Amino acid sequence: MKNYGADISLGVYLKKYFGFDSFKGSQEVIIRSVLSGYDTFVLMPTGGGKSLCYQLPALIMEGTAIIISPLIALMKNQVDSMRSFSVEDGVAHFLNSSLNKAQINKVKSDVLSGRTKMLYVAPESLTKEENVLFLQQLKISFYAIDEAHCISEWGHDFRPEYRRIRPIISQTGEAPIIALTATATPKVQHDIQKNLTMLDANVFKSSFNRANLYYEVRPKVNTVKEIIKHIKANEGKSGIIYCLSRKKVEELAELLKVNGIKALPYHAGMDSNTRSENQDRFLMEDVDVIVATIAFGMGIDKPDVRFVIHYDIPKSLEGYYQETGRAGRDGGEGQCITFYSYKDIQKLEKFMQGKPLSEQEIGKQLLLETVSYAESSVCRRKMLLHYFGEEYTEENCENCDNCLNPKIQFEGQEFIQLILETVLAVKEKFKTEHIVNILAGIMNSTIKSYRHNELEMFGEGQDKGVRFWNGIIRHALVNQLLEKDIENYGLLYLTDAGHKFLENPHSIMLTQDHEYEEGDDDDSIVGPPGGKSGGAFDEELFSMLKEQRKSLSKKLNLPPFVIFQDPALEDMAIQYPISIDELKNCQGVGEGKARKYGKPFIDLIKVYVEEKEIIRPQDMVVKSVVNKSGIKVFIIQNVDKKLDLEDIAKAKDLEFDDLLTEIETIVNSGTKLNIDYYINEVLDEDKRDDIYDYFMNKAESESIEEAIDELGMDYTEEEIRLVRIKFMSELGN
């Protein structure tokens, strides 16, 4: 092969073809490696200029470069971009399933004539026999494999077709390979090189540190409202919101639109024309926000995306890093905000259950890394860079929530020790829930039947409660002292490191907060540097409202939370409603409660606002989508008809949990609903009375966790929620 790399003046070609005066980072040395005919591995974060590393050599070298790329949208974007730099339209083409026969013939004609320097091919198209025969006719300058992490099962976007690339290259004619990716741990990098038989390749790694990106993880509380506030505080700026499900993408895009935000959805279930049109409208700035699944964004070259929000936490840190990396590619502001709830992790674990065991094992490990990142109080940047094999030596990056708001830590050695000893005491044959119940001293039929109430550690941690011990077990899993046996329904067992820890216990610092399961509204308000903490409620007013609620509860002889729950008071302390109409728009209030209990609260707020000369954020009231209220009307009508709740859920394609959440919202907003007919079917009278009595006489709040702690594990979360609905409906409305 002709060696182009040694003496060629690359700056001249860079200026001629792309109009740039200088290369970024390690681009020049990478391009020289390709021109010299070496296999080349490039690990370069999003925005570093990977594409140029194969585009420029393709234009300089004889023959056609075959660029293997995973997404049709990405190919189209890159081909359009190359054609804009060249006078020759045929300089770049793509070959994939979106083309008809005439278009395919035109592509092949241009390639065979020598006009085409770059041919983009999907891995699926590459393996078709007719395409293999076609490629055998060409002079191939080199193969570029973009998004090469798709080769590895440990990568965040594994594609089995990518593992068939090497045999096809061997069939179509040997040529150098350049493999490129924005995200790869050392393990994924080795997988890629091994699969492509390029272990001797020249390797070029750029730093993963994107100093301009601000990282923050918030609890998943009032998520839609928080997102709307963030977008309105950053009006006119471009942003991407990622959701895991197509349904959530559609719902959230609709909600943003009714709240005056220019937003569009994007996911693989939409027809390709709509998808392309929505993508183009975002690139052309007709809309500010795209709500998308991970199908969106790979290789989309929009430099001024100012925020990336994850409505759902991603399945892996590679996915998270790549998706957040779409913010601030021009070096300007980039806010990366993720909403996290451990329940989402449990859902993702459930989705894995039908997959082969090896895939479950890998998926479990990747999720563990994500949990560790979300719940850790360590600098976010330090954790991310460590994950990708890079050391970050600064103590404080000054651009993430953990560095700007350091969390209190506590010594966890004795708690971890107690957990490990309990797991061994029950012969490593029980799941998390059972271990937690032993330590929290919760007596139930399983504990009794195994006589685990006779263990010395039974009740030893009852002063800490269920949530605390769940958190300690997660820390033990994250620190790889415990494992879940996925073949045996998640039974806990000690790792070698866990046994060593027990033999020689050592200090292990754990974080005191980040209790994301229910979330804490205070924690969800941390803003970027110099930013305003826009979601914080007025604590002085909140205290006054709580006093008002206590006074009213004594007068009416009702538990305070029946009148208004804490989130409703917090929202009043954000919105400052001074009329019944404004009050009914606060979270968890609704018309019934506003009219029944609202007057003393709005009178108090009115005086407070006048005294403190407060400007009220009335533009921040989140409007609901009409369709949502349609679901609520449907539920109310069918409960009135005494239809089985499970049938109501099926009719609207809802999970039963989601139906209960809808019913709770209806009841908490002041509408009376009688579900006695269903409760009487599924609960015996004693259980129903016990739960009702707990909420009437013992409960300090509406919390399900506190109810389980008090009532014991014989009472399920679902049973408690059903009776709580009955209680709130009868006494509160």
Describe it.
The chain is α/β, with parallel strands linked by helices. It folds into five domains: 10-205, P-loop containing nucleotide triphosphate hydrolases (Rossmann fold, 3-Layer(aba) Sandwich), CATH 3.40.50; 213-404, 3-Layer(aba) Sandwich (Rossmann fold); 409-511, Winged helix-like DNA-binding domain superfamily/Winged helix DNA-binding domain (Arc Repressor Mutant, subunit A, Orthogonal Bundle); 540-620, Orthogonal Bundle (DNA polymerase, domain 1); 626-732, ATP-dependent DNA helicase RecQ (Arc Repressor Mutant, subunit A, Orthogonal Bundle), CATH 1.10.10. It has 35 helices and 17 strands. It has a seven-stranded parallel sheet with strand order 3-4-2-5-6-1-7, with helices on both faces. Strands 8-13-12-9-11-10 form a six-stranded parallel sheet, sandwiched between helices. Helix 15 (357-375) packs across helix 21 (465-478), helix 31 runs parallel beside helix 35 (717-732) and helix 33 (685-698) packs across helix 35 (717-732). The radius of gyration is 29 Å and the shape is globular.
